Amino acid sequence: MIHSKIIRFFSLAALVAGFSTLAHAQATRTWVSGVGDDANPCSRTAPCKTFAGAISKTATGGEINALDPGGFGGVTITKAITISSECFEAGVLVSGTNAIIVNVPNASDLVVLRGLDIEGLGTGLNGITILTGGSVHVENCTINHFTQNGINFAPTVVGSKLHVSGHTVIRNNNGGNNAFAGIMVRPTSGAGVNVDVNGVQLENNANGIFANGAGGGGAFNVNVRDSKVASSSNVGLVAASNGPAVTMAVDRTMVVFNVSIGIASSGAAATVRIGNSTITNNVTGVAALGGSTMQSFKNNQIAANIADGTPIAAVPGGPLN
């Protein structure tokens, strides 16, 4: 009798442990739906309601997918993960706060945000904020109407990277506050940070892209290619630093209708290089300020700007502009 009870006890304990393990198991791929429930396991047949609900049930390196259109809320990301919506409206709508915070610990942690409609309603703070480290890819997203930055890239980890591509649109951010930008790059510590912006539209922000060396981090690079920067209330593209070296390269990019300056460099540690680009219908086309360096590869179209900026230094051997 006693032996039988002991056997039953351990069998029951093993069964309970098995259910506990299943309850805490994380899937490589999870799903959210506009009609889901965060109490669900986030499977395709029982999807979750929000990204925040799904992320705890998704394994490191896994992927959260949108099963159908919906508003899936803000989320804080603390591990390598992909959040993707290829075919459906995947809304992230917030008021008075940040929409997506990326707070992964290592530069090697890969975070992909794809196909998201990130809306700040004119009261949200930042659309996407990257705080510690990681290699963050923003692809085919729309980031609209935040009071601070569309993307705030402020890593503390050496070698962190930001890639923005795939027809991403960043617009109507900052409310005219010149301290912010569509994309703000301001590392707060560490060096070797790189930013790549390819095929992106930045429209109606305070500054389009602001490479800001005042955050206390090390030297970093920003590359802008095949993009459009338009109608900024201050500067379209700007690299500014009196401390760590900040370098911006601009290639095959249209910079138009910016209220102050199309492309600017500012401070002795800032360098901007421009090639194959159109800079027109700004108040000032280009300006090198405060002992900074600006160079043209002499194959640009710089014309029809209302005022002339500081002449840019020539790269030897090229034609005018």
Essential attributes:
321 residues; mainly beta; Pectate Lyase C-like; twelve-stranded parallel sheet; ten-stranded parallel sheet; 9% helix; elongated; disordered C terminus
How would you concisely characterize the structure shown here?
The protein has about 325 residues and is mostly beta strands. Helix content is about 10%, strand content about 40%. The protein contains two helices and 31 strands.
What does this structure look like?
There is one protein chain. The chain has helices at residues 2-24, 51-55; strands at 27-32, 58-66, 70-71, 75-77, 81-84, 90-93, 100-102, 110-114, 116-119, 128-130, 135-139, 142-144, 151-153, 161-165, 169-171, 183-185, 193-198, 201-203, 209-212, 220-225, 228-230, 235-240, 246-251, 254-256, 261-266, 270-275, 278-280, 284-289, 293-296, 301-303, 313-314. The model is unreliable at 9-23 and 314-321 (pLDDT under 50). 9% of the residues lie in helices and 41% in strands. The chain is elongated, with a radius of gyration of 24 Å. By secondary structure, the protein is mainly beta. The chain is built from two helices and 31 strands. β1, α2 (51-55) and β2 form a beta-alpha-beta unit. The N and C termini lie far apart (96 Å). It has a twelve-stranded parallel β-sheet with strand order 1-2-5-8-11-14-17-20-23-26-29-31. The chain has a single domain (69-314), classed as Pectate Lyase C-like (3 Solenoid).
